[in-house]
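Protocol step 4 of 5: obtain the predicted structure for the target chain.
Materials: sequence only (see below). No template structures provided, no constraints applied. The aim of this step is simply to have a reference model before the mutagenesis design in step 5. Sequence pasted as it appears in the construct record:
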Amino acid sequence: MLFKDIVVKFLKEKKINDIFYLPGIHTVSLNESFIKYGINVYTGRHESDLMYMADGYTRRTNKTGVVFVTPGPGLGNIVSGCMEAFGDNSSILVFHIDTKRQEHGKGILHELKEPENIFKYFIKKSFYISRIDEILPKLNAAFKETTTERKGPVLISIPFVFLDKELPLTENLLKDQIIETHQRSPNFFPDDAIERIEGILKSRHKPVIIAGKSLMLEEARNIIHDMCMHSSIPFLTTTSGKGIVDERQPYAFGNIIKKGLINNMIKDADIVIAIGTRLRDMDAKRRGVKIRELIHIDIDDTWFGKNYETLIALSGDLLDFLKKLKEITKKRRFDWDLTLLKNMEETEEGMLMKMAMGYKAIKIIRDSIPHETVTVWDLNLISYWAEYYFPVYEQRAFFMPRGISPIFYGLPAGIGAKIGSFETPCLVVCGDGGILPTLCELSFIKNYNIPLVIIVYNNNSFGILEDAIQKRYNLMGLMTLTNPDFVKLANTFGIKGKKTNTLQGLKKILLNIDWHEPYLIEFSYSIFPTPWDI
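Step 4 output (structure tokens):
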């Protein structure tokens, strides 16, 4: 069997049918195998975009995203996407089809010494196949690494000269050698640790739960609902945890970074139970989240004590902990009045509706799109308001690049998310500055007929930076942009679109969109205050 067939057959055995790929002279022979085994190949215009597409895909589907890249500049172009995937624990397997390293030092095409070292600090693990008989053990190891425990990107480098070599393997033998990757046996929480938590809760009256992305599990949603409703416990999330529960529920209060009510609620809590979140500085402490006493539960111990002192810090199976916490609290009804809190939240957001343009914008968007819509937010002023206040109803339906906070994420990640669940409406919200370098992928959208709806918030600048520079240094216009007519540009790719410069116009367009075809909305509006300035 050909080496390249083994690689592609491995993907099929792992139920990976979609890959993101920009061919080069080192990789073209792979196309034969992709066709032979029925792999859906999505060819983008830039490797950076491919990496973000894979990121959006894995966040939406909880499957592994797969990217094939060429050596040298192809590999270098995925650096920022790899940083984001590493920072937000996204499962992505990168196949680097490498040069012939035995010829390094001669100035061969795309020569780069030890290219894996580029990724040393922002990849979970890298593998190099130096002999053709290493292929299956290292493929198995790479797949296990990216899909188990704390997930993350993994790089596997394969010399291109191996691709068309024969290996003495039959298809049946190949299947036998592909190890079925299972999650490790659950690490259940010991009784004495649970008893310690039960003892603490006996003397507490106002617990709050904070959850992060690692708790994005369907079974968790049901347990949380029963526990929080029965025991009157407010439930909050980090940005990447938005959607763990339906935020319309009486106990759900959205993101921990909100000011006012939520900020005071966390301060008033006599115990915070954080589950499946790292509580990174940028997710919590930097945003003004103050925690008096903390029980921290996560999938491993990497982040314990980094930003907050803990009474108890335990790692293990999160569902096991949730079930035991529900058992502990089933005889308690704590002192929070959830109805009163919801009324206070409604009053507070009613005030924002009157005074804050950013809040009005996300309210209009939320009320004008189907409730199940997957939304992907590049970094821009509207998106920051969404991070704080946009209510999410479904799991894996709100994505924002908070792993390393790169701009230029939204459009390609939205494409990947849409490919991952083609039947679900998907909306991308980008700023004019953030979308400009990725507009080449309008070609991708048209070529594959991806029915993605795109809002371009056009303020003719890098708005958030313009706002910051004006406030801090009283300098004007340093971040001004000269923009194209975004709708006309979309039209040149055969994509429909409309312009508006009012919120009512935006609402009207969204309410009348056909979500089964690609569409671009250019929303022109001046810079408005950020949510942290209100």
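Step 4 remarks: The longest helix spans residues 338-355. The two ends are 64 Å apart (CA to CA).
Proceed to step 5.
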